[in-house]
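Why ZSC29 protein? Reviewers of the renewal asked for a concrete example.
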Amino acid sequence: GKHWTVNEVRALIRIWSDKNIQQQLEGTVRNKRIFEQVAARLQKFGIDRDWKQCRTKYKNLKHEYKSAKGAQDSGSTSRSMKFFNELDAILGHSTMEQASKSDN
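Here is what the prediction returned.
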């Protein structure tokens, strides 16, 4: 797929940081409908992404965040990511076991 721009990722994170969206994502595994909502909201920002692209990007960001967080926790600072602070604001409050439970 087309590479995500910084603005597109920012918009995705902004939508994802919506408490309502977070609760829905935490409460379900079959999340196609949620990502269809996310895609519709991105459309309002003029960003043309389908739900699959949104879900894939969400998963990748989450994975990248966990890697960065894990590296940070073990004292290594080499692994930093672009949107770490934004994601930490969303994901930092949820425990790791909760995160791994909703991962698969």
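The CA atoms of residues 3 and 57 lie 10 Å apart. This is the kind of structural detail the renewal will allow us to pursue systematically.
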